[in-house]
Amino acid sequence: MRTAAASIMGRDINNSVPLDPANPAPHVDLKPSPGRAPMIGQLGTEVLRSASKSGYYVAFTGQVPVTQYFEIVRRADCDDWVYLQLINPTMVRSNPNYYISGQYIGDKAALKCAGEFHKKFRDGKDERLVGTDGVVFDADSAVYTDVDGGANGHKKLHMDGWAVKFVEPTDEAIRKRLASRPSTPIDVVQLKTVAFWIEKNHARQYAKDLRRLLPMANKRDALIAWHGADREVFRALASIDDLNESSDLYLQILDAGIAEMLRPGNLTTVASPTVGDVPFVAANVLVCRNQPGTISELRKVLLEATIVQHKLASAKALFALGDIQFLQDQLRAGRLGDVSNKVQHMLQGRDIEPFSCPYRSKASA
What we know:
Blueprint: H1 2-8, E1 57-60, E2 70-75, E3 78-83, H2 89-94, H3 96-100, H4 109-123, E4 134-137, E5 143-147, E6 154-159, E7 161-166, H5 171-177, H6 185-200, H7 207-213, H8 219-224, H9 230-240, H10 248-255, H11 278-289, H12 294-304, H13 308-320, H14 324-332, H15 340-347
Parallel strand pairs: 1-4
Antiparallel strand pairs: 2-7, 3-6, 4-7, 5-6
């Protein structure tokens, strides 16, 4: 149970990332992202170490932890021929555990292409890889560009890749990354590492830079335009923002939950697929600041919001601010619709993750 709790909270108190006897001193050795530490006996979803087969780091964008900043040295696309051996019944019968468990990669073009780079690192002849720690690929960009007519399984694959080097970020590097929104998948991952570093180090000097990156051009964007690293950027800002700053940003985020629906009324809510926990973070900040007028704004969102995250976030904030009688009155009057049960549980003290002040996400907890 302790290991499970540690993983959920982003900690690794039991050293649940096991040592690899075949790779005792990896050149690259990263910590897992908060909440993604593997359970003991399970394989993690992130690539944390350079591989023993080449001594270099090879991963896909979704496998890179946010805990270590890296430089994007140069492009290193995969444009290689790969041979794909599709699984057949004879192969499965010979070793069912291997072929059915997902360990077999002979039919997975992106993995085969990435594997070619271990050979390139060992050969040391590819100039794109000189002076780097490894390469990161975007699996979603993989596309076949040629097929050997004589062999159906022999195909040429293109996949976007970037040679990277893990370093500590400089002020110049951080400000350069925060100067514009990310345009490529590797930019998104790099921005997440910057947001993690800022939050971990409570680097308040970057608050204005973070604020400029948020999708807050209008109310619609504030509701549905959270993509890429936007949520990580917002959490970092919320953790370092000056308590004396205006709370307009956080109020606007919650107000975006009052959205017009095809079906009139607000007793039936829907979820926003992109906003995630942003409304809860905004509500947490508002609770910590507790500025005049906050409770009235939260009451408005609670009663009028049509998006479930915003409605629940406002209820949670009102509970934290002690506005319990108001919540009880709305429950009795039947004004909370389909979130009534969750608000009732909240009033009964069954909230497993209450707000805390100052706000801190799992990244800096």
